[in-house]
Amino acid sequence: LGHAHGRGVVHRDIKPSNVMTTLDHGVKIIDFGIAVPAESADDRVTEMGAFVGSYRYAAPEQLRGEHDRVGPWTDTYALGATLYELLTQHTPFEAATYADRVAYASHPVPYPPSHYVPELPPALDALVMKALHPDPNQRFYDGDEFFEALEACRVRRRGWLPRFRSSRGSQSESWGLKIYSAAMTVVCLAIGLSYV
Q1: Residue 12 DSSP label
Q2: Contacts of 42 (CB under 8 A, 6+ apart)
Q3: Burial call 34-62: b when 16+ CB within 10 Å, e when fewer
């Protein structure tokens, strides 16, 4: 993502299904079908100026059709929403329909991830909330800035593990390790650098 932003491209549809793993354990961002040059994000919209993207992960300015405000920070919002879901098993706003999500666009912020995962490290909680800030000027500017912040708050893999309920209702630490490892790997690799 940082690579794309560095070349003036805004993806506009970052979501879990557009982040794919390769056989050699690499991660690729796919589906640049609605990507646009950052300087002309307001020029290329669908006919009639309709919303483009995936509403569950879209930034408020994208949902409201404010195409002149779309930029790399719109992608970092969607990347934050993707990380939110990987960490909590919830999307930031549990909206069943596009209309529901548009209604939430005027809400300032979602519940923090720690609402669902109380043991989440505060620095990681704050990072996700910064990515999901409703004001684009308060978010990470681009994928590279997001990565730098993620590196600064990185926690040791054995230090903290989220605990999720398994299908049998018991606490599953191994599932938490898988989710956390996947979240950190996907986000870090998706913005252009590997997490070791």
Answers
A1: S
A2: 67, 68, 70
A3: ebbebeebeeebeeeeebbbbbbbbbbbb
CB 33 within 8 A of CB 62: no
pLDDT at 7 over 60: yes
Beta strands in the chain (DSSP E): 9-10, 19-21, 27-29, 36-37, 164-165, 171-172
How many Cα atoms within 13 Å fall on the side-chain side of residue 97?
3
User: Distance between CA 20 and CA 91 in Å, rounded?
Assistant: 19
Residues forming the active site: 13
Q: Which pLDDT score is estimated for 9?
A: 84
pLDDT of res. 44: 47
Residue 13 has pLDDT above 90, yes or no: no
Per DSSP, the three-state class of 166 is: coil
- pLDDT band for position 153 (50/70/90)? confident
